[in-house]
Protein backbone atom coordinates (compact mmCIF):
# COMPACT_ATOMS: atom_id res chain seq x y z
CA UNK A 1 0.00 0.00 0.00
CA UNK A 2 1.48 3.34 -1.07
CA UNK A 3 1.96 6.05 1.54
CA UNK A 4 -0.07 9.20 1.06
CA UNK A 5 2.05 12.26 0.29
CA UNK A 6 0.98 15.66 1.51
CA UNK A 7 2.32 19.03 0.49
CA UNK A 8 3.52 21.11 3.43
CA UNK A 9 1.61 24.37 3.82
CA UNK A 10 3.14 27.58 2.54
CA UNK A 11 4.48 29.49 5.55
CA UNK A 12 4.07 33.29 5.87
CA UNK A 13 6.95 35.34 4.42
CA UNK A 14 7.74 37.08 7.74
CA UNK A 15 8.02 33.65 9.36
CA UNK A 16 10.15 32.27 6.50
CA UNK A 17 12.47 35.27 6.16
CA UNK A 18 12.86 36.66 9.68
CA UNK A 19 14.90 39.57 10.90
CA UNK A 20 18.20 38.95 12.67
CA UNK A 21 16.74 39.66 16.10
CA UNK A 22 14.17 36.83 16.03
CA UNK A 23 16.37 33.82 16.72
CA UNK A 24 19.50 33.05 18.67
CA UNK A 25 22.81 32.08 17.07
CA UNK A 26 23.20 28.36 16.40
CA UNK A 27 25.67 26.27 18.34
CA UNK A 28 28.38 25.39 15.86
CA UNK A 29 30.10 22.95 18.24
CA UNK A 30 27.22 20.48 18.52
CA UNK A 31 27.01 18.84 15.08
CA UNK A 32 24.04 16.60 15.97
CA UNK A 33 21.97 19.52 17.19
CA UNK A 34 23.00 21.57 14.14
CA UNK A 35 21.98 18.76 11.74
CA UNK A 36 18.62 18.28 13.48
CA UNK A 37 17.99 22.01 13.31
CA UNK A 38 18.75 22.17 9.57
CA UNK A 39 16.58 19.12 8.80
CA UNK A 40 13.68 20.46 10.88
CA UNK A 41 13.97 23.81 9.14
CA UNK A 42 14.01 22.22 5.69
CA UNK A 43 10.97 20.09 6.49
CA UNK A 44 8.99 22.96 8.01
CA UNK A 45 9.68 25.41 5.16
CA UNK A 46 9.96 22.92 2.29
CA UNK A 47 7.18 24.52 0.22
CA UNK A 48 8.66 27.99 0.71
CA UNK A 49 12.11 26.78 -0.37
CA UNK A 50 10.64 25.10 -3.43
CA UNK A 51 8.77 28.28 -4.47
CA UNK A 52 11.83 30.51 -3.94
CA UNK A 53 14.08 28.09 -5.87
CA UNK A 54 11.54 27.88 -8.71
CA UNK A 55 11.20 31.68 -8.94
CA UNK A 56 14.98 32.22 -8.97
CA UNK A 57 15.42 29.41 -11.49
CA UNK A 58 12.77 30.99 -13.76
CA UNK A 59 14.28 34.49 -13.41
CA UNK A 60 17.75 33.26 -14.32
CA UNK A 61 16.27 31.23 -17.17
CA UNK A 62 14.38 34.28 -18.42
CA UNK A 63 17.48 36.50 -18.27
CA UNK A 64 19.65 34.05 -20.19
CA UNK A 65 17.54 31.23 -21.65
CA UNK A 66 20.27 29.86 -23.93
CA UNK A 67 22.82 29.66 -21.12
CA UNK A 68 20.30 28.01 -18.83
CA UNK A 69 19.28 25.49 -21.49
CA UNK A 70 22.91 24.78 -22.36
CA UNK A 71 23.83 24.33 -18.71
CA UNK A 72 20.85 22.07 -18.04
CA UNK A 73 21.60 19.97 -21.12
CA UNK A 74 25.27 19.53 -20.21
CA UNK A 75 24.56 18.62 -16.58
CA UNK A 76 21.85 16.17 -17.69
CA UNK A 77 24.16 14.53 -20.22
CA UNK A 78 27.04 14.24 -17.75
CA UNK A 79 24.67 12.79 -15.15
CA UNK A 80 23.21 10.31 -17.65
CA UNK A 81 26.73 9.33 -18.71
CA UNK A 82 27.76 8.78 -15.10
CA UNK A 83 24.69 6.62 -14.45
CA UNK A 84 25.41 4.57 -17.57
CA UNK A 85 29.08 4.18 -16.63
CA UNK A 86 28.11 3.25 -13.06
CA UNK A 87 25.88 0.48 -14.36
CA UNK A 88 28.15 -0.87 -17.11
CA UNK A 89 31.69 -0.46 -15.81
CA UNK A 90 32.65 -2.54 -12.78
CA UNK A 91 35.42 -0.17 -11.66
CA UNK A 92 33.11 2.85 -11.65
CA UNK A 93 30.31 0.85 -10.05
CA UNK A 94 32.61 -0.17 -7.17
CA UNK A 95 33.90 3.39 -6.76
CA UNK A 96 30.33 4.71 -6.77
CA UNK A 97 29.28 2.19 -4.11
CA UNK A 98 32.29 2.84 -1.86
CA UNK A 99 32.50 6.64 -2.34
CA UNK A 100 29.08 8.07 -3.25
CA UNK A 101 29.98 11.59 -2.17
CA UNK A 102 33.17 11.64 -4.24
CA UNK A 103 31.22 10.25 -7.19
CA UNK A 104 28.68 13.10 -7.00
CA UNK A 105 31.50 15.64 -6.62
CA UNK A 106 33.16 14.11 -9.68
CA UNK A 107 29.95 14.49 -11.67
CA UNK A 108 29.67 18.12 -10.57
CA UNK A 109 33.31 18.91 -11.41
CA UNK A 110 32.98 17.23 -14.79
CA UNK A 111 29.79 19.21 -15.48
CA UNK A 112 31.56 22.41 -14.48
CA UNK A 113 34.51 21.66 -16.77
CA UNK A 114 32.30 20.85 -19.75
CA UNK A 115 30.10 23.90 -19.11
CA UNK A 116 33.11 26.19 -18.84
CA UNK A 117 34.14 24.95 -22.25
CA UNK A 118 30.67 25.81 -23.55
CA UNK A 119 30.51 29.22 -21.86
CA UNK A 120 27.20 28.92 -19.97
CA UNK A 121 28.60 27.84 -16.61
CA UNK A 122 27.96 30.95 -14.54
CA UNK A 123 24.34 31.28 -15.61
CA UNK A 124 23.39 27.71 -14.77
CA UNK A 125 25.46 27.49 -11.60
CA UNK A 126 23.96 30.80 -10.41
CA UNK A 127 20.47 29.49 -11.17
CA UNK A 128 21.06 26.43 -9.02
CA UNK A 129 23.23 27.77 -6.23
CA UNK A 130 21.52 31.11 -5.59
CA UNK A 131 18.44 29.45 -4.02
CA UNK A 132 20.79 27.35 -1.88
CA UNK A 133 22.69 30.48 -0.88
CA UNK A 134 19.43 32.21 0.02
CA UNK A 135 18.35 29.20 2.09
CA UNK A 136 21.58 28.96 4.00
CA UNK A 137 21.77 32.71 4.59
CA UNK A 138 18.11 33.16 5.49
CA UNK A 139 18.01 30.39 8.07
CA UNK A 140 21.56 30.28 9.33
CA UNK A 141 20.31 32.05 12.43
CA UNK A 142 17.46 29.66 13.19
Report on the architecture of this protein.
This protein is mainly α and 142 residues long. The chain has one domain (28-138). The chain contains seven helices and no strands. The protein has helices at 13-16, 31-44, 46-63, 65-88, 90-98, 100-118, 121-138. Helix 3 packs across helix 4 (65-88) and helix 5 crosses helix 6 (100-118). The longest helix is centred in the middle third of the chain and has 24 residues, at 65-88. The chain is globular, with a radius of gyration of 19 Å.
Derived from helix and strand composition plus strand pairing, the structural class reads mainly alpha
Helical fraction equals: over 70%
Strand content: under 5%
Largest sheet: none
* Count of discrete alpha- or pi-helical segments spanning 4 or more residues: 7
Radius of gyration: 19 Å
* Total separate domains: 1
Count all strands and give the number.
0
Would you identify the regions where 5 or more consecutive residues have pLDDT less than 50?
none
Chain oligomer state: single chain
What sequence of helices (H) and strands (E) makes up the elements?
HHHHHHH
Shape: globular
**How would you state the average pLDDT, rounded?**
76
The end-to-end distance, rounded to whole angstroms, is 37 Å
Keywords: Acetylation, Cell membrane, Cytoplasm, Cytoskeleton, Endoplasmic reticulum, Membrane, Transmembrane, Transmembrane helix
Subcellular location: Cell membrane; Cytoplasm, Cytoskeleton; Endoplasmic reticulum membrane; Membrane
Family: Belongs to the PRA1 family.
Protein name: PRA1 family protein
